[in-house]
Write a structure and sequence with these properties.
The protein is an alpha/beta fold. It is built from 21 helices and 19 strands. Helix 3 runs antiparallel to helix 4 and helix 20 packs antiparallel against helix 21. The radius of gyration is 28 Å and the shape is globular.
Length: about 650
Amino acid sequence: MIQLDQVSLRRGGRVLFQKASMQIHPGWKVGLTGVNGAGKSSLFAALLGSLTPDEGTLSRPQGWTVAHMAQEVKALDLPAIDFVLSGDEEYWNIQQQLQHPEQLNNDQLAHLHGRFDEIHGYTAPAKAAQLMAGLGFMEHQNSLAVSSFSGGWRMRLNLARTLMSRSELLLLDEPTNHLDLDAILWLEDWLKAYAGTLVLISHDRDFLDAITDHILHIENSELTLYTGNYSTFETTRSERLAQHQQAYEKQLETRAHLQKYIDRFKAKATKARQAQSRIKQLERMQLLAPAHVDTPFTFSFREPTKMSSPLLTLEHVSIGYADKVIASKINLQITPTSRIGLLGMNGAGKSTLIKSLVGELALLAGTRKASELLNIGYFAQHQMDALDDTASPMLQLSRIADKKISEATLRAFLGSFGFSGERMDTPCESFSGGERARLALALIVWQRPNVLILDEPTNHLDLDMRHAFTMALQDYEGAVVLVSHERQLIASVCDDLLLVHAGQCTEFEGDLQDYAQWLRQARADMLKQGTSNTAPSNPSPVVENKTNLVKVDKEAQRKLAAQRREQTRPIRKNIEKYEAQIEKIQPRLTEIETELADPALYDANRKDDLLKLMNEQNDLKTKLAQAEEQMLELMMELEELESSFE
């Protein structure tokens, strides 16, 4: 087993954690979590033996083989499958020696052949091919040179090489960053079956939940081991936090406030989107919020610019590159109420469709109709790469902001995205991937888009920022088109799922569990038939393009929903105004109650302070009651107006 005894680690003079003592037993699958910079990578280095603890001892069995996924892959001329096979070092060494039998005597040859048989060397190429197929490689790619693959695909090769190792300890740092959903689901199944000890760094909560049985969390210079998966960890940690602060009471108040609103619209929940948003918020709060009460990230999308419906339409469109058609006969309409998640296997055309929607890629056929009011906020990897490395976040934001906006307002806005102090004024050339992603998102949010088109927006974000981003998207008032491997994000944000597959873009009427089953069946069929674009033999509930009549009805319903939303907007704005007042008053009342509980306040020489606090309390309670009464009256008015639409 792995044992830590009074271990302390420091980097650059900063204490990461200290006096940590624990045991990790063989076969455990441990998720390593903590904010960026907490010390996760340093602990990995210590487990690998490349970093010695500053204090204490860290030990693991001497005979263990440790597999670790490197973060970079050189542009080698080695065939991809050979690169993967080299992950099994003993197999690779024996294989290299057997290729030169003339350099060996009979005893050496006999020993090598015997050992080769013991380690199942004859089946290794088939195992490597299966690993590559599971991670999205086609059979013909096995013989291509490593140098012929892009950076993201080289990382997949590196992951396959790591999994090829016959290891007792497997260390994986963000293995899903360059994977799509089908590869992630395959990797989940593989890691569940892995017999060794796994230590995993990931910001994908569903991935952690599916695999881990323990969570090792770093915070406040402490290393704490929790039993259970990530969801269990969230609950346990929230209970620990509640013992030290008023987090529990604060959450109860927020939930009660949300529940009061939802109860008002329970009968109209399918009609009142504002109530639906709060239902989602309440559902996620039960699972997520307790573990994020101390998150530094709290932001919201600014109200979109003027709306029209539809905002963007594709009619009879074919997409692809040059003369290669990837998908055709696409009919898609985006209205202010659209919440679309794009599903599909790697290479099916999701990113191609995204680029066609934003106008970055010319259509091969059909028409793209954009409203004059269309204002797209587009997030993709190359948006991060396009940041001005020589400019600070403050400078880049000021370039797109109105000159009348104060510097304090800009700094407060950047602060909500985790930029503070000198970091706001630091050129972003030294920024991490997470910081670059947050800056790119901040610049998009500032421009108040009415359509958000997001291609893997959370790849470099940690769990706290992903939570804040998800909550902000739920409350965003514009349209959303999303490609993401993060199931929690899709489930929380998207109302409709579209499947890009086999040259078509069709509606997927199941949920993400159905999609996972569909992917497994599709992958099995592909392996049988050796193709990259075949439909499953027993497809899950995918609906082909509907008749024009049904399509028109659905579009009409969306237009009607947008009209109704516009009619109710003034009332909803007033409700939000009173909600803001209530949210401002309640924390101050809590503070006053805490101050009034102090016995020292009732000393004779503190009489004036006591009277001042009691007067402020009475005044705030009056204002709170008035705001709640006004808000409830507006809710009833909104309910009556919604009823008139029936």
